[in-house]
Protein: IclR-ED domain-containing protein
Organism: Cryobacterium algoritolerans
Amino acid sequence: MAAGSSSLAAPIRDRTGHVVAAVSIVTHSSPGAGPEQEQAVRVAAQGMSRALGRHRAS
């Protein structure tokens, strides 16, 4: 990662709840953008987990 950047990641779980992958992004660090990006990564991971059969919140 370069100076001035930040990374966010969230686990992707299979139907048994085991972590099988992750989704991540690297962005430029900027004040105030964090919560929206965190939510986007979380929602993406939850959607992929549901596609793998995960039905509980992770």
Q: What stands out?
A: The longest helix spans residues 34-51.
